[in-house]
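FW: tagging you since you asked about this chain on Friday. Here's the raw sequence from the shared folder, copied in full. Didn't touch anything.
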Amino acid sequence: MKRPRLTLLPRIWLSTSVGLTLLFGFTAWLLQRHTLDTSQASVQEEISSSLHAYESLWTSRSETLGSIAAILSSMPNVRDAVRTRHQPTIQDVAGELWTRVNDNLKENAFILVISPGGAVIAPFGPTTGLSLPASWPVVRSAASRFPKQVSGFVVLDGRLFQLVLTPVYVDGAAGPALLSVLLTGFEVNHQVALKLKESTGGSDFLFVSSGHVFASTLNPRATAALGRLSLDGKAPSAVNDGVTEYTALSRALPGLEGKPAGSLCILRSFEATSQRIATLRTHLALAWLTAMALGLAVSYLLARRIVQPIHDLDTAAGQVSRQNYSLRVAVRGSDELGRLAATFNAMCDSLLSAREELIRQERISTIGRMASSIVHDLRNPLAAIYGGAEMMVDTDLQPHQVKRLASNIYRSSRRIQEMLNDLLQLTRGGSKQRESCALREVVEAAVRESEPAAQRQQVAISMQLPDGLTAALDRARMERVFLNLLANAIEALPSGGAIAITATRGQGHVRIEIADTGPGIDPAIREQLFQPFVTHGKKNGLGLGLALSRQSILEHNGEIWVEDQASGGACFVIRLPLEPSLPPI
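HL: got it, structure written out here
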């Protein structure tokens, strides 16, 4: 027997696989999204920290320069030297002091003595390699805020400087008079930007004014690309140089004249973060594949463990539907499936017991029906035999009377013999001996034997059977079949009628119809018409004629059934195979 396919297992496995895939995919997306958000927040915090570090460092430098200038301007010897406006005198007085101050600053700072008009009187220390401008017009612009120190950024001769202006006053007849200005500061260049990057943990710096880049820690390509952007935001924003993405934060550089001298852009690259995210994605993909493989394996085992008992129950149910009540399924565990298997086995036990009880009751019922039919059907012929024999023994009869009684006894004993033969055929089955017979001869033999009874009831029998219909038959049994059908038809026509026997040749078979003009088949027995001991409205008979006829036809590889007629009456149809040598019509 071909086992049914496990169709439930693939569906459970597929649904579980889809569920696991969606679950792991959604989890990985959430983890990646959380990592990206965390990285972006971390970059923004880093760039904000870099801004704070820059502001602290820049403020510290500005305050240091201002303090140094204030101290120098308050020293009497320095004030006297500045008053002379003699460069060698000024440098002799302040040279050693400035050297110690500059060493402490560790910057390429400078200090100049500037006239109120902005001209350089003398450098307050060495200026080798600085290439400072000879005139500083910003001194005149900032004079309105004197005597306070003025600090800020300024662009001069294409260069960016951070300056602190400290005015030096002397007492005169009209009050304090501006003697000169100590200009302290340093140039903002690439070296300064690199030192800022080192001190702020790796953030990049870009000093820009009017589209011109004065200092940058980026490569030339990124410097040129980002230097053209307008970055005036108060909050971090994303920028791209065409290759790398950055988070940028921009701040204005306060100028000496009160207006912004430029802007400072602090940038934090996403390259390291992107690499970490790429690595995370790779790890997530590997983890997802591993988890999926393990999940699919586990889900397959679990699904198979669930489906296999169901498959066993399905197979067992199919066997039970074929009346195989002895099949049992294995009980695995005490869970719901185990209890279902135990219940199924108990059901099979109940069905088997019920079947055995039904068979026993059916056998008892069959024996009772058969005994009742035999007693009922044998009573009349036995009574005739008993009565005839009693008259022949106790009464002196004339020869013609004896002959008539003997004839009655003979017919009654023959009827009993026929009943016994029917019972014998029912229990033993028919013989397997076949011979080539002409169907017309077999039917004619049955018709000849039925004609006396038909004439008594005024029933006309007609035949239309073509010649040449030959089949391998057990002649005696097939004659008995047609004889039973004719006898039933004659008995169904007590007031006369007609019986028509016709045959039609088909492809390798013949169709024989026996139709009468009687009342037809009673619907009460139509479904059980070919079952043993089924009879209705008959005076004699065990109800075995049609059952034995059907059995004989089935053993000849044929079929028999009953059809309705539009004009009324019954029509029995027999289909028998013809011998292979005969060509079909």
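FW: The radius of gyration is 63 Å.
HL: agreed, and The longest strand covers residues 159-172.
FW: great, closing this out.
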